[in-house]
Specification:
- The chain has 495 residues and is an alpha/beta fold.
- The chain has twelve helices and 35 strands.
- Strand 11 and strand 12 form a beta hairpin.
- The chain is globular, with a radius of gyration of 25 Å.
């Protein structure tokens, strides 16, 4: 099927019938020549993850904040992906959530959308809290609800990419799947270089330099000892380039062909680590074995009664049975793109998002009571109903809603969530303070995390600790945030 051709719609020619909502255009001010009632892409926000790599801030224990509701620059991270879709003219969005998280997520999104007067409908797809379902399983649930291709986006993705450029790559290649990739974000050093944090899980992405076709993709944590690439693939693609400095952003355009393949493989549960590699393998088999497959099919059709039929490889039957070709491609972007899915990057990405997404983030909150003798740095952000006493200092920090801070406190490179109480003479450097925490007077904490509901007693001093208020977990677990000898993110952030 040929790709849809889009042409800009002049302002004076628009009518109610030609608006993006009715023509099915999902990005930009365009008019579809061959009009369709259904949208070209149906967006699906994956927000059911329990945050295994951010366990101390969000997990499936009762009372914990859902991962997608963790604040990034004082804004729940799910809003960035939903706002991204709204800005690209989508009027109906599917959000996949866990049943126990639905109320808090729905309440926040409903109130925010109403406040900003956006005209968008959100349909929630609920997964049981104890269900062991992956992102590919979620696609199976959503797919019957729409006839269009899917736009799948992770709720922890924050990006300024042009969606129309991604869609054009998908259309031009008639792709089964198109993925967005971007340079992995890092804080530049004084000499302008960017150093990779060795705690980051690298993506190994092999691409054909001619057309950006995906030839290999895997995450570092899924690779045991070595990368294995078959000889036939290297013969067909001798110039494959393997990248380790690119981020798979978990933003995908998925065709109906891919959804049909997914239905034929019920054992595939995860999209990133199972479905995408499966598509890549099918694509390569189609390309490498095309001539042989056609020849074999013609020969074997004439010799159906011979023993040679049994020697026909299974993968050739897979190829012949596919209704359409399977092509997987990427779109490169240099636009700001991060995934807030690892604990050691959480503070760094709060600062980066604050600097790069100012048009999305609300300004300092309302009904704040800030002493005139308190200094709040220009890179810091305050939530609503914040009370700060005299002679405090804030640098590159984010203060949530209804936070109360006593006098003579020094807070640097720190994220403080909602309903936190901090008494006088407290020093926090490079810390994460979760909701409902109480920090008594004269405490000094550095490179530490204080989890929901914990009370830090007066005069405490902690460096590199994780303080957890849970009867099933020890109150204090030693946790080294940074690799020895590598320097800390706090040093990077202070530059």
């Amino acid at each position: 099927m040929s790709p849809t051709v889009l042409t800009p719609a002049p302002e004076d020619e628009k009518s109610d019938e030609e608006t993006p909502a009715n023509t099915g255009v999902s990005a930009g001010n365009f008019r579809v020549r061959n009009r369709r009632r259904s949208p070209e892409f149906t967006p699906v926000v994956m927000a059911a993850g329990c945050g295994s790599q951010m366990f101390e801030l969000s997990n499936d224990r009762a009372g914990k904040t859902p991962k997608c509701m963790l604040p990034v620059a004082n804004t729940p991270m799910i809003w960035y992906s939903v706002n991204f879709l709204i800005a690209n003219k989508f009027e109906e969005i599917f959000v996949v959530v866990r049943q126990g998280d639905k109320d808090v997520i729905e309440s926040y999104l409903t109130n925010t959308i109403r406040k900003l007067e956006h005209d968008v409908h959100i349909e929630y797809v609920c997964i049981e809290d104890d269900a062991d379902l992956g992102t590919a399983d979620s696609l199976r649930i959503v797919a019957p609800k729409t006839k269009s291709d899917l736009l799948v986006i992770s709720s922890d993705l924050i990006t300024k990419v042009s969606l129309s450029e991604l869609a054009n790559v998908h259309r031009a290649n008639n792709a089964a799947l198109t993925a967005l990739i971007a340079p992995r974000y890092s804080v530049p050093t004084p000499d302008g270089r960017r150093k990779r944090n060795k705690k980051d899980d690298r993506d190994f992405i092999g691409l054909d330099p001619e057309d950006d076709r995906i030839l290999y993709i895997a995450n570092e944590k899924d690779i045991e000892d070595e990368i294995s690439i078959k000889r036939g693939q290297l013969t067909r693609f001798p110039h494959m380039r393997l990248h380790t400095n690119l981020l798979d952003s978990h933003l995908y355009l998925v065709s109906r062909t891919t959804l049909s393949i997914l239905d034929n493989h019920p054992d595939v549960s995860m999209m990133r680590c199972e479905l995408l590699p499966l598509l890549v393998r099918k694509q390569i088999k189609q390309i490498v074995n095309t001539n042989y497959t056609v020849f074999a099919d013609r020969i074997y059709s004439k010799k159906q009664d011979t023993d040679e039929d049994s020697k026909h490889p299974d993968e050739y039957f897979d190829i012949l049975s596919e209704p359409e070709s399977v092509g997987c491609y990427v779109h490169h972007t240099d636009s700001f793109t991060v995934r807030v899915n690892q604990l050691h990057n959480y503070i760094k990405y709060n600062k980066a998002v604050s600097e790069n997404m100012d048009d999305v983030i609300p300004k300092n909150g309302e009904n704040c009571d800030i002493s005139k003798q308190t200094q709040v740095g220009k890179c810091s952000r305050l939530g609503n109903s914040v009370k700060i006493a005299e002679k405090c200092s804030f640098k590159r920090s984010f203060i949530g809603n209804r936070v109360q801070i006593g006098p003579h406190c020094k807070i640097v490179d720190t994220v403080i969530m909602d309903d936190v109480t901090i008494e006088d003479n407290v020093s926090l450097t490079n810390c994460i303070v979760c909701k409902d925490v109480i920090i008594r007077n004269k405490c000094t904490l550095k490179d530490s995390r204080i989890c929901d509901g914990f009370e830090v007693s007066s005069g405490s001093e902690f460096v590199g600790e994780s303080l957890v208020a849970d009867s099933e977990i020890p109150n204090m677990m030693s946790f080294s945030i940074y690799n020895s000898g590598q320097g800390s993110d706090a040093e990077d952030l202070s530059k």
